[in-house]
Each structure stands twice: as C-alpha cells, then as structure tokens.
Amino acid sequence: MASVLSGHSVRVLSGMRPTGRLHLGHYHGVLKNWVRLQAEYDCFFFIADWHALTTHYENPHIIEESVWDMVIDWLAAGVDPNTATLFIQSRVPEHAELHVLLSMITPLSWLERVPTYKDQQAELKDKDLATYGFLGYPLLQSADVLAYRAGLVPVGEDQVPHLEVTREIARRFNHLYGREPGYEQRAEEAISKLGKKNGKRYRELRTAYLEQGDAEALATARALLDRQKNITIGDKERLFGFLEGGGKIILPEPQAKLTPSAKMPGLDGRKMSKSYDNTISLREEPAEVERKLKTMPTDPARVRRSDPGDPAKCPVWQFHEVYSDDKIREWARAGCRSAGIGCLECKQPVIDAVLAELKPIQERAAEFARDPVVVKNMITDGCRRARDAAEETLVEVRASMGLAYN
Ligand code: TRP
Ligand code: SF4
C-alpha cells in the first residue's frame, strides 16, 4: 500500500571521509548501494572532510589530496550528480552551526559512552585523539544528518551507535523546543488543511504506524507531508510530530539503513581495508591488478600443483563468491579438491572479472580527471543545493532556540 507513493521525497544522507584512495571494498560495500538508492530516494552524499580532520589534523594534506579523487571515483562508479546532491561538508557551514547549537543540549556523557570514542583511541595509538573535536565526532555526524532532516542514513554496522546518538539528540531537541499548548487541537486543524483526500490518507497512515508500528506507513506519511505545498512549516512540523504521537517535530529522528554487509574480501582473506594493505584500488593499473591477484595467497595445503586443496581455506575462493557464476564456481571447487587445476588457472576467471569490472570505471574516471573544472562545477552546484536545504532547517532551529532576531 505504501508503494503507491514512491519514496522520492524521503531523504537519504550519507558521508565518506576523504582519507585515501577508494578501493573495491568501497565499491561493493558502499558505492553500488548509493547508486541503487539514488534511483529511489532524494539522496545527499558528501565528503566528510571535517570528520577526517578529527583524526588527521596532524597531516591534513592527505585530505586535500583525496577529496577530488574521491569525487571522481564516486562519479566513475555511477553516482549521478544530477540525481543526487553531491557536496563537501566544509563548504556548507550550516553543519558547523548546527553542531555548535546541538552541543548546547548534548550531555557530555552521551558522547563519552559512544563505543567508537574509546575504541578508536585505543586502536589508533599513534594519534592523540583526546581532543574536543574527536569527542564531538558523533555530534558533528548528528548535525550532518539532522541539517537535512534525513529519514534514512545508509551506514555500515560500525556507525549504528552514531545514528543512535543522533536519534537521542533529535528527541531531546524536540522535547526541549517542540512543546506548545493546545497541541492536539492545532494538529487537528492542520490535518483539515491537507484537504479531504490527503487528510484521510494521513489519518490512515498515522493509525497504521501508531497501532501496528508500520514503519513504511510512517515513511509514506512523511513523504506525503513533504509534498504539501499549501501548509505552513509550523503546521508541517506539528503533523510530523503528531504522526509519532508526540509534540512538534523540528528535527525528525533518522533511521539507519544498514548497508548489506560487504562480502568483499581483501587479498589476504580479511576484509578489504587500507589499514591491512590488502586492497585493489579503483584506479589500480590493470597490470598491477593482475600482479596482486596472481601473488595473493591460496590454501597453504597446496604446496605442489598435485596437492589437493580446500576452497574454504582460500581467499581466492571468496573472490569467486563475489565474481563468479555457479558454473565457474563448480569448476574451481572440483578442480581445487581434486588438484585438477592449478591455483593460477583458478585465479584467471577472477582476474578477468575484476579487470572487466574496473575497465568502464577507470575509463569514466580518466574522463573526469581530464576535466577537473567540470567536476569542481558539479560540486559547487551540489554545495549550493545542500546549503539551501540545510538553511531551511537552520531557520527553524535558530527560531526555536531564541536566535531569530527579526
Ligand atoms: N562517520 C562516517 C564514517 O566514518 C562518515 C560520516 C560523517 C557519515 N557524517 C556522516 C555517514 C553522516 C553518514 C551520515 O563512515
Ligand atoms: Fe584457492 Fe583455487 Fe588454489 Fe583452490 S585452486 S587453493 S580455491 S586458488
């Protein structure tokens, strides 16, 4: 029933830290997902350069170097700047403004107990992360999301605690600033302004959410409200709040949309990650791709060509799971167990598939790299669109915090 209304006005927001080259792990884990989402939602994707600074403040040049390469990799992977809004965090100062405003109402303990705070400090021992900025990392992320009133935030498992803080902060903000007398009656009046058909639809969806917890109905009702041109922003917020049974919702709570867990293995069988030095970058030279795959380890039991092996103990097999069809997989599995094929033979279809996947990406990347002005203009345009969207929220936020001196 909710599919009658497309998800087009549901906002999706996600960011990526510019701390190095993108690799196949990013492509399979994040970018392909973004490309799917942009067809369905109103997507905002941004370069989280301030977030990168929280951990790279001592050598910020890597950030500068990575930003444009990253944008080019996004574009090359199929992220479409005409469909999605692509921008750079630091070019939208509203993120910083909202960060400082939210900091006023954020209890220190909420930030201190975010697991990534202590975990990352322990993990990145070579860096001094006992900074104000690093403690505020999840709050800055909250500001990113809330500035756009995003409904869905595609992230990996590790980011879920940050989304949880975002939701708590939104709730606290609405609780502090969204109370008003005569709320229910004002909400009823606002419903009548939706018109007969939309009013009825709104009530149905609200009931479905409040009585059955139907999250899709909630998303659909929000989309319906988003499309209303003839009601005031105040009424809109009232109706957003009324949907969930509470007060006025100035900052709606986002949902994490878990990225289907990346099955992309690295060259050593662990997850592909820069810190393990087991990556194939999206711009890796074909000869280098071939070399890396040819030298990657296999089942250690296969010392000689005549020794049978076990695909379950081989990182190459995980590549077959990503890149090969049933037929090739069957051939590899049988050939490995019977020592019917050698490891280099087994790797060949994987090499071919990775090269075939990278070819069009690299061609597109080369085109954009040749035309940096085009890329910069796209981003300038995206930053402007992002600012307009964030500004709408900030107008409300400033007013509710007593800062609208008109
Ligand atoms: N912290 C995220 C990461 O490391 C990046 C990020 C910053 C982000 N702001 C965001 C992701 C807002 C989603 C929404 O992956
Ligand atoms: Fe791995 Fe293939 Fe060699 Fe078996 S034959 S060990 S699956 S590379």
Descriptive report:
There is one protein chain. Helix content is 58%, strand content 6%. It has a three-stranded parallel beta sheet with strand order 1-2-3. With 406 residues, the protein is mainly α. It is built from 18 helices and five strands. It starts with 10 loop residues before the first strand and ends in a 6-residue tail after the last helix. Strand 1, helix 1 and strand 2 form a beta-alpha-beta unit. Helix 14 packs antiparallel against helix 17. The protein has three domains: 206 residues, HUPs (Rossmann fold); 61 residues, no CATH class; 87 residues, Tyrosyl-Transfer RNA Synthetase. 38% of the residues are buried. The chain binds tryptophan and iron/sulfur cluster. Tryptophan (TRP) binds next to strand 1, helix 8 and strand 4. The site of iron/sulfur cluster has 14 residues, from helix 15, helix 16 and helix 17.
Mean pLDDT: 93
Number of H/I helices: 18
N to C succession of SSEs: EHEHHEHHHHHEHHHHHEHHHHH
What are the low-pLDDT stretches, counting only 5+ consecutive residues below 50? 1-7
- What is the CATH topology of the largest domain? Rossmann fold
Under the CATH scheme, the architecture of the largest domain is 3-Layer(aba) Sandwich
Q: What topology, given as strand order, has the largest sheet?
A: 1-2-3
Percent of residues in helices comes to: 55-70%
What summary fits the major beta sheet?
3 strands, parallel
CATH class of the largest domain: Alpha Beta
